[in-house]
Amino acid sequence: MRKGKTVRQRTIKALGRKDVLAASGELDRLAASIARHAERSVILSDIDAGRIAARRIGGPLLFGRLWQRLGIDAVLEEVLEGRQFGFAVERAVFVATLHRLFVSGSDRACLDWMESYAIDGSEDLALHHFYRAMAWLGE
Q1: Would you list the domain boundaries of the chain?
Q2: Cystine design at 105: which of 37, 53, 96, 109 (Cβ 3.0–4.6 Å)?
């Protein structure tokens, strides 16, 4: 509250000691209750609760352009011509390469990591597709 040129604080209601409120869980309940009225907090809590999913797009878009400009997609499609894998091998190689550039790790980790990114053509890829694609590359 402002009185003239000075700002005055006023206690409306004492809630108690912070350590006691935190231990009882009351502090979290109060914070959640207040957060329902703050738009930003609502969105963040919805993301944490899984009601809103955010997927990253920057890396796949940038790397995808580079992938195409270098002609890697075309080379893979040409080499794969006539092979009947039954899944998008080029996309599996793209995702696995992108994963190794970003964080590295196993094919299993790649599958979990992929869920955080919007990567065209990767929607139907499963773990065994990554295993098969990597085995094919190793030949």
Answers
A1: 2-49, 58-138
A2: 109
